[in-house]
Amino acid sequence: MDRPKSVPSGQPGDRPSVPEQRSTSGPYLRVDDLRVRFDTEDGVVRAVDGVSFTVERGRTLGIVGESGSGKSVTSLAILGLHNAKRTTITGEISVGGRQLVGLPEEEVRRLRGRDMAMIFQDPLSALHPYYTVGRQIAEAYRVHHPGAGRREARQRAVDMLGRVGIPQPARRFDQYPHEFSGGMRQRAMIAMALVNDPDLVIADEPTTALDVTVQAQILDLLADLQAEFHSAIIMITHDLGVVSQVADDVLVMYGGRAVERGSVEQVLRRPQHPYTWGLLSSVPSLHGDADEDLVPIRGNPPSLINLPSGCSFHPRCRYADRNGDRSRTEVPQLRPAGGEGHLVACHLSTEERTRLYREDIAHVGVAR
Amino acid sequence: MWGSLGEREERSAAEYRSRERRQAPMSEVSVAPSAAEPLLRVRGLAKHFPVRTGFRGQSLVRAVDGLDFDVRPGETLGLVGESGCGKTTTGRMLVRLLEPTAGTIEFEGRDITHAGRRQLRPLRQDLQIIFQDPYASLNPRHTVGRIIAMPLQVNGIEPPGGVKARVQELLEIVGLNPEHYNRYPHEFSGGQRQRIGIARALALRPKLIVADEPVSALDVSIQAQVVNLLRQLQRDLELAFVFIAHDLAVVRHFCQRVAVMYLGKIVEIGDRVDIYERPQHPYTRALLSAIPDVTKLGPGGRIRLTGDVPTPLDPPSGCRFRTRCWKAQEICATEEPALVSRGGGQAIACHFPESGPVAGESGGTAGVTVEEVSK
């Protein structure tokens, strides 16, 4: 708990070489059989239903899924940001060797912002409009450095603003969020998230609200900062293009469950789950035949209150009836899918999937 | 239907109500011009918004600042660009939800730039719009049947076979169950709502549809469904489209011609293959290379544009892109480049256009230009 963080007023890059006191070797973040349930008037929502993954320092995990797939709920659970009265969280979340599920709120709060931080999609609603940008960043610093004075915190915030590429950081410190452009606001949010030098950064659609040329800048910035700080990053996105650029590993979620997991190479180049195929063939490409129709996934994403039985993707799956009734009755578990560390939750056999992929999918959209 | 109630702007809602009161029979259908003539001809189109600055000051946001383009019958033109480039403002002026500050809009040879409500009524049958937000653009208190029938009612049209039959036919055309006539918008998903908006736009059998980011609010898998639907409708009904979008990959799949906008100006316009394979404006190249490409893993060679789009309150002198352009020279600050045709329907507004194709599929789009950046 009292692990010294970066030296006060030091440069952001001056990560102290004090050995980890609590963390054991192995992945920095370990999520095991995470389940998040909300009790609502309409019934129980199983927003996350048994998801497991790990992220190591210096690595980026991309979590991909459509709205309602549980990707954002997973990240909020890791940060302990769910309303405890209405939410039931079970399973294991271990950050740097510390078990978070069941930890008192006080202790989670001490970790949040210091050991783990979040970059939100919409910086305009995540930044407080009444306070200057600099004051908010300095506050984030002082909360976790009670000994730090005002000037020191200011210096640290100005350093951070400069580090994320904001010109004239000392002047920008005293400006309000509305005086920043969209890209600058997102940079300021990143500065705030990184001001305490966290080991785990969760970025929830950090570039979705931005224009492509600014998105490219922000993705570059995140990659540079990761190389410098050696943090573990979870990148939550619906954009497979973003994933292909920044992720080392990919987790594909559907209806609150993981349907495929593997390295970015495995998931995007040799995808195994029909849902991943559907995503890839739905995305229009900048290359190839522009007159070809896209191959969408039929139907709509399921309601989490009333998930389809068995494999929750089966009503939309073109291949669901190849296993008799299995897809309708039995929830598929993640199983090895061929490549090392590549897992898929599908009742089709590996041989059949390989054949279907080659015959039906490999030539459409970006799957090409 | 114009500026339907879901539209956030009160002005549109007021327009809508006044139109509803004065239901008049449709006037005679105009004689269609010859196919060679453009359906829509836009010249020098501009929209300046006055904004208050400081305590008493007032200045102008030049949201759209002089556009020239044509849309031929059955043609699909994509308007692309980043936020603030004026593409949505342009779309709204085309359907006259906004009053242009300058320039002309001709539809089938008639000047409609400042046409009054009475003159516009017959036109609105030919010129329809699909909005971005499928939640805000449908009245939650109206049934789907009523929403789709509204354009018919407002224009006093009694389709053969009755309104209900026509609405059910439209529901079927857009891939919805005709039995869902009596349901309300909240009973539908985002993709289905967008289909309802499309059915409403089709109700009057228009010749031109302005589609303002019609798929950007939808999930990836649903986006593909709606893009396919629009493509099919465009082919089957020979509709002309002005398709406004920021996603260049979607535009490539839908549009025959593409206009790239930057700060209220068209910087490059051309056929799809010109824009995507042989872009000549540095901004078009930068935009294309900034798109994260699923077919390439890892951060590829990209043109890194620095900074954000400048404010349209005070756009840079000369070429508006010069502050972010790696090729900018003195002349770019003093002289505004005109949109000059370079043959084959491609026109570029740049003093130093790029030449040669971008590197092929496997070579990486940015391969050529990245070197130039580092110079």
From TrEMBL, chain A:
Residues 1-26 are annotated as: Disordered. Its main location: membrane. PROSITE patterns: ABC_TRANSPORTER_1, ABC_TRANSPORTER_2. GO terms for cellular component: plasma membrane. Residues 29-280 form the ABC transporter domain. It is found in: Cell membrane. SUPFAM superfamilies: P-loop containing nucleoside triphosphate hydrolases. GO terms for biological process: peptide transport. It is a peripheral membrane protein. GO terms for molecular function: ATP binding; ATP hydrolysis activity. Keywords: ATP-binding, Cell membrane, Membrane, Nucleotide-binding, Transport. The keyword Nucleotide-binding applies. Belongs to the ABC transporter superfamily. PANTHER family: DIPEPTIDE TRANSPORT ATP-BINDING PROTEIN DPPD, OLIGOPEPTIDE TRANSPORT ATP-BINDING PROTEIN APPD. This is Peptide/nickel transport system ATP-binding protein. It comes from Micromonospora avicenniae. The lineage of its organism: Bacteria, Bacillati, Actinomycetota, Actinomycetes, Micromonosporales.
From TrEMBL, chain B:
The keyword Mitochondrion does not apply. GO terms for molecular function: ATP binding; ATP hydrolysis activity. Coiled coil: none annotated. Keywords: ATP-binding, Nucleotide-binding, Transport. InterPro entries: AAA+_ATPase, ABC_transp_ATP-bind, ABC_transporter-like_ATP-bd, ABC_transporter-like_CS, Oligopep_ABC_C, P-loop_NTPase. Transmembrane segments: none annotated. Residues 1-33 are annotated as: Disordered. Pfam families: ABC_tran, oligo_HPY. Residues 1-23 have a biased composition (Basic and acidic residues). This is Peptide/nickel transport system ATP-binding protein. Belongs to the ABC transporter superfamily. Residues 40-288 form the ABC transporter domain. GO terms for biological process: peptide transport; transmembrane transport.
